[in-house]
Amino acid sequence: MPWDYNLSFGGFQGGSASDVVNLAIDTLVSGISLEERPLLAKLLEVPEYKEKYHEYLQLIIDGYFADGKFEEAVNKLDQLISDEVKNDPSSFTTFEAYQEAVAELTKLGTLRAESIQGQLDGAIPSTTEGQQADSSTLIDSSSVDLTKLGNQGGNKGPGGGGFGGSGDFPSRTDGEFQPGMKPESEQPAADAQ
Question: Which stretches does UniProt call biased (Gly residues) (predicted)?
């Protein structure tokens, strides 16, 4: 798994849960202005493209979130990998932290979908400027703890880095790596075995 998948749901940017849940669908940049992303800005200036983009967002909401497929997919994937996570000797976290992350991911996805739907319906401003001018309609995300989904280290999560782990490499009392724990770059060459 690529190194940064644990930061895919807002952990990398270091923003608040509200920043992630209520990200403006018609601004779609973080920490910069839309003008600094001219391709995206130009595409959103064309009414037909912006309308098509909004149609795709609505398809995702209707076909994946509104009918429970998102939560179902998270639960299926959890069932698929849960035992492996629980028994992983090289884990950077605890199984309990993993379980908390699964629940937090479901909550985050559901609230994000609610915000997108509100923006598509016009109930929530769909630009950063609009949201800054009137934040009264933003989705309340105070129950979301992004550190449970991963962070940039600094031992901020429950138990430390990762999504709840200490951020340290797993250790063995005998000081040896178990098979598969050693990075590929440290594996003996095929001809040396």
Answer: 151-167
